[in-house]
Amino acid sequence: MKFSSNGLALLTLIGSTAAFTPSSIIAPRQSSSSSKLYVQMEAAPAKALPKIEKLKIASNYLRDPLKDQLQTEEIGISKDAYQIMKYHGSYQQNNREKRGPKDYQFMLRLKQPAGELPPDLYRLLDDLSLNHGQGDLRATTRQCFQMHGILKGDLKTVISSIMNIGSSTVGACGDVSRNVMTTPAPFVSSDYEYAREYSKCFGQLFRPMSSAFSEIWLDGEKAVSVETWAKEVEHHNIDEKMLYDNGRGIIIPDATEPIYGDQYLPRKFKIGVTVPGDNSLDIYTNDIGVVVITNDAGELEGFNVMVGGGMGRLHNKETTFARAADHMGFVPKDDIWEVMKAILAAQRDHGNRDVRANARMKYLVHTLGIEKFTKLVESYCGVEIQPWRAMADWKYNDWMGWWEQGDGKLFYGQHIDNGR
């Protein structure tokens, strides 16, 4: 089962902003590997860190104060612990159906790169929602499931069960790369297969590395089963690509989180992957949008990459706004790893950590402009971004109803009602 960005279930059946002032651009320098100008961001004057940034640093890589708070007899956790809990895939909520004192319970969100849900995991979630939740599952707009109504004392049972079956809630929330989406249509063709494959690759590439997750939910033991998507892309040697240091500032001197560091990102980070012509996932609303480019033989050549999208805004706050991503350019398949890391590093180092409402990467891209942002990315990865490749025009298809899958089988798009 897979989910589209609008809650569509697909079953495969057999048969410029005044509030935001980024660091200024200083004079470029020559790169030893290219004649292109090198762009560097001038360090902003030192400021007192916002509370949320101090909390991330003090958390000891997402452990404190959550670990101790989970041991108390209270039905909820503190505000600080709640902020750290997000990185573990959960939000503390109050049961609004009950009057009187706060009746805290927890929402738990899964990580499902490419929106894929193995049948054994679905059965487990169904059982967990009945035995430890409020008896339902909710499909999100980022192709994953949420469970609601989990009591604090049941969290460890629920999360450990999910981890031991080969899934995870790590990175489903928090200031990290969120669930990586792709087109929900399970067509059996090379471009769609590459889209699904690289969605899982990017999900694995940008996973938080802290051992806090296994320490808290599995008592420090390894999960019984490795995440299903990690096994499917292990031939890419993702960890080797993640840890490769080109000496240009992508990898930071942090033994625990070499990509994120102890402050992680300024804000959440969303990635989408699709094929030319298929915009069923609203690709321009992502921080990074990746489009698979193949040759006439169906072989992967590389990717068109767009940056700086996002739909969020605050009511009556003109310094926040929705924004469609800009085309950055084409990246050959061998360079995509460093370019993706470079984009995230640019946001990590130069995103706005002072004003959280303007912390998404879209504000950095908007303020610098796509040309300067591209040069900044090139300065991190040492790769010249090529011009955007011409491709098929975009079409929106919600993939409702029956469709030929391409291998003699059919898939069906089922509408899921939204709202309470």
Overview of this structure, please?
- By secondary structure, the chain is an alpha+beta fold.
- It is built from twelve helices and 15 strands.
- It has helices at 51-58, 66-69, 79-85, 119-132, 155-164, 190-205, 212-217, 228-232, 238-243, 336-350, 361-368, 370-381, and strands spanning 2-3, 9-13, 29-31, 34-38, 90-94, 104-109, 137-139, 145-150, 181-182, 271-274, 288-294, 300-307, 326-332, 401-404, 410-414.
- The strands form four sheets. Strands 9-10-11-12-13 form a five-stranded mixed β-sheet. A four-stranded antiparallel β-sheet has the order 1-2-15-14, with no helix packed on it.
List keywords for this structure.
single chain, 420 residues, alpha+beta, 5-stranded mixed beta sheet, 4-stranded antiparallel beta sheet, 17% strand
